[in-house]
C-alpha cells in the first residue's frame, strides 16, 4: 500500500561564521527519495521556512555528487519541488504516514529549535507513524518529546553523524551543536559504524536514524521494512 512520506529540509544556508555556504546534503535527499519513490510511495518536500531550499554546494561536486544526486537534479518534477517547498508549519502532519528529516550541516541550526519540526515529529509519533532522520538531520529529534513527556530519544537506540566524523571534517568547529553529544545528553543510546563514514542505521520501534550520507538509502530501506511489518500486522 502506498504511503505518504514527508521529507523535511533545512532552510539554513550559512556555515557559521566561516563565510561558507551549507544547506541540505544532496545525497541524503536523493538516495532516500528514489528508494521510496521507485516503490510507489507518495513523497512531499517541505522546508523550515518554505521556498527554495538550499543545497550544500559541496554536495553538488565530485566526488560527492552520486548517481542518485544527478538523477534528482535531472528530474524536472523533483527540481521544481525543491525550488518551491511549502513551509513545514503550513502542512498538517495528520496527512502523512511518516517523516524523514534530511541532513546537511544547515540542519544543525534550525531543526533543533523550530516549533513546526517539533510539532510534526510529535504528531506523527503520536499516531504511531515512522519518524526518521539522517546525519545532522537527526538533530530534529532533539526538541521533541515522547508521549510520556520525556525526550523522544531517551532510552532509544539512535545514531547520527559521530563526533569523530565531525572532527575529521572540522565541522566540530562550525556547527552549533554536535549531534552525537546532544543525543547522549538527552538519554539516547548512541551507536555508530565501526569505521568513520561507514553506513549505520538504528531502528527502535517507529524511530529510524542514520549516521551519515552513506546511511541515507538504508534509512529509506528501514522505512520500507516498517511499512511491510505494518501491512503484515494488519492481515
Automatic annotation (TrEMBL):
Protein name in UniProt: Type 1 glutamine amidotransferase domain-containing protein
According to the UniProt entry, the coiled-coil residues are none
- Give start and end of each DJ-1/PfpI domain: 28-225
What UniProt keywords are attached to this protein's entry?
Glutamine amidotransferase, Lyase, Stress response
Which InterPro entries does the record cross-reference, listed alphabetically?
A: Class_I_gatase-like (IPR029062), DJ-1/PfpI (IPR002818), Prot/Nucl_acid_deglycase (IPR050325)
The record's comment on protein family reads: Belongs to the peptidase C56 family. HSP31-like subfamily.
Gene3D superfamilies in UniProt: 3.40.50.880
Output the PANTHER family linked to this UniProt entry: GLUTATHIONE-INDEPENDENT GLYOXALASE HSP31-RELATED (PTHR48094:SF11), PROTEIN/NUCLEIC ACID DEGLYCASE DJ-1-RELATED (PTHR48094)
Q: Which organism's genome codes for this protein?
A: Sphingomonas colocasiae
The record's Pfam families line, in alphabetical order, gives: DJ-1_PfpI
Q: Does the keyword Lyase apply?
A: yes
Please spell out the taxonomic lineage of the organism that makes this protein: Bacteria, Pseudomonadati, Pseudomonadota, Alphaproteobacteria, Sphingomonadales
Amino acid at each position: 500500500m502506498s504511503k505518504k512520506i514527508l521529507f523535511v529540509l533545512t532552510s539554513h544556508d550559512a556555515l557559521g561564521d566561516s563565510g561558507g555556504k551549507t544547506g541540505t546534503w544532496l545525497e541524503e535527499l536523493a538516495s532516500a527519495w528514489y528508494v521510496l519513490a521507485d516503490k510507489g510511495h507518495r513523497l512531499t518536500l517541505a522546508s523550515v521556512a518554505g521556498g527554495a531550499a538550499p543545497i550544500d554546494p559541496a554536495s553538488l561536486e565530485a566526488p560527492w555528487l552520486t548517481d542518485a544526486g544527478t538523477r534528482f537534479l535531472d528530474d524536472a518534477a523533483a527540481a521544481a519541488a525543491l525550488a518551491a517547498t511549502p513551509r513545514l508549519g503550513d502542512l498538517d502532519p495528520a496527512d502523512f504516514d511518516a517523516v524523514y528529516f534530511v541532513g546537511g550541516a544547515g540542519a544543525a541550526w534550525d531543526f533543533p529549535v523550530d516549533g513546526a519540526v517539533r510539532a510534526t515529529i510529535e504528531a506523527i509519533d503520536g499516531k504511531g507513524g515512522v519518524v526518521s532522520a539522517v546525519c545532522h538531520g537527526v538533530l530534529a529529534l532533539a526538541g521533541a518529546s515522547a508521549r510520556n513527556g520525556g525526550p523522544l530519544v531517551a532510552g532509544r537506540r539512535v545514531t547520527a553523524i559521530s563526533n569523530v566524523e565531525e572532527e575529521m571534517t572540522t565541522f566540530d568547529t562550525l556547527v552549533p551543536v554536535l549531534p552525537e553529544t546532544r543525543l547522549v545528553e538527552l538519554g539516547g543510546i548512541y551507536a555508530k559504524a565501526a569505521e568513520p563514514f561507514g553506513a549505520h542505521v538504528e531502528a527502535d520501534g517507529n524511530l529510524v536514524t542514520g549516521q551519515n550520507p552513506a546511511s541515507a538509502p538504508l534509512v529509506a530501506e528501514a522505512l520500507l521494512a516498517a511499512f511491510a511489518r505494518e501491512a503484515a500486522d494488519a492481515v
